[in-house]
């Protein structure tokens, strides 16, 4: 009798566990379908098109061309400059965002009057839609009626207005600066949250041992911010490298391709030349690059986790 009860109980538990697994799978199915339809299928399509001659004007002929699309990209005279612009834009954007975000986070972490207001106000650039921010900066930087040139000339900093977005000598740096202005609040909020999680006991103990503010910053603050810094830096490296809309709103890659980047090249291949195969090959190359960055991030993250556990 006892054996029969045990078998019945095990069968019931097994059946209950199966029901729970079926219910969980049913609840996850819409999300899985969403990922397949909106991410999986387009990704596979891009990878397949990269090795085929796909053209929107001649959709009937799609022969397999192997690596010809990749050769076409690499032989394009605009590819190397666009790659250099992408690296410049990404590197200096991320560095500028982190420095400005860390500085503002430290200042906002101090007990000052109106701290709540400043914490809210500093997040406004991140909340402004890209199209609005881009058009606003275009007006502000206009050499004829922009307020930036007006202030610089009246303060005696420059002798005559500068076409920041229309001069190849200033365009890329200007776009990078504007991107830093827009993105640094995200760093500020993330780093501020991490700063508030640092125990005050660490600073008090180091102060008793004679450590100054700079030593506390180097040996306490920065190590405590290492994990969150790693996440937001690598996340923004990918976001910035594949950014299209902000540069397009400001300059459309001009003047004379001075701010042209790889995402803009993909757009021109696909939407202006209708050469989807070549656009897909360049997208595949960028995907491989982003994957390598992710692998590098994962290794560093694993190393930090192991050091924390030890």
TrEMBL record:
All copies of domain ABC transmembrane type-1, residue ranges: 83-297
PROSITE patterns membership: ABC_TM1 (PS50928)
Membrane topology value: Multi-pass membrane protein
The keyword Amino-acid biosynthesis is annotated on this UniProt entry: no
Claim: ATP-binding is one of the keywords in the record: no
Keyword entries, A-Z: Cell membrane, Membrane, Transmembrane, Transmembrane helix, Transport
Source taxon at top rank: Bacteria
InterPro entries reported for this sequence: MetI-like, MetI-like_sf
Subcellular location: Cell membrane
Similarity-based family: Belongs to the binding-protein-dependent transport system permease family.
Name of this protein: Carbohydrate ABC transporter permease
């Amino acid at each position: 009798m006892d054996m029969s009860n045990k078998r019945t109980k095990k069968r019931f538990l097994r059946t209950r566990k199966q029901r729970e697994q079926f219910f969980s799978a049913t609840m996850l199915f819409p999300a899985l379908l969403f990922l397949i339809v909106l991410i999986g299928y387009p990704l596979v399509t891009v990878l397949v098109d990269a090795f085929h001659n796909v053209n929107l004007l001649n959709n009937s002929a799609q022969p397999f061309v192997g690596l010809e699309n990749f050769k076409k990209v690499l032989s394009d005279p605009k590819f190397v400059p666009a790659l250099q612009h992408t690296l410049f834009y990404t590197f200096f954007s991320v560095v500028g965002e982190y420095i400005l975000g860390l500085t503002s986070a430290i200042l906002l972490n101090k007990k000052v009057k109106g701290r709540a207001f400043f914490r809210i106000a500093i997040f406004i650039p991140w909340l402004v839609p890209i199209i609005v921010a881009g058009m606003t900066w275009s007006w502000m930087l206009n050499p004829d009626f922009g307020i930036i040139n007006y202030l610089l000339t009246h303060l005696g900093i420059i002798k005559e207005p500068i076409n920041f977005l229309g001069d190849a000598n200033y365009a890329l740096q200007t776009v990078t600066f504007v991107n830093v202005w827009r993105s640094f609040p995200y760093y500020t909020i993330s780093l501020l949250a991490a700063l508030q999680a640092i125990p005050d006991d660490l600073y008090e103990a180091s102060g008793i041992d004679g450590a100054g503010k700079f030593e506390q910053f180097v040996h306490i603050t920065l190590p405590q911010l290492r994990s969150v810094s790693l996440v937001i830096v690598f996340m923004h490296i990918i976001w910035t490298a594949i950014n299209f809309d902000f540069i397009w709103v400001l300059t459309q890659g001009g003047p004379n391709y001075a701010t042209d980047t790889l995402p803009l090249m993909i757009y021109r291949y696909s939407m202006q030349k209708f050469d989807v195969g070549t656009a897909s090959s360049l997208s595949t190359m960028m995907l491989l690059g982003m994957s390598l960055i992710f692998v590098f991030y994962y290794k560093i993250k694993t190393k930090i986790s192991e050091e924390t556990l030890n």
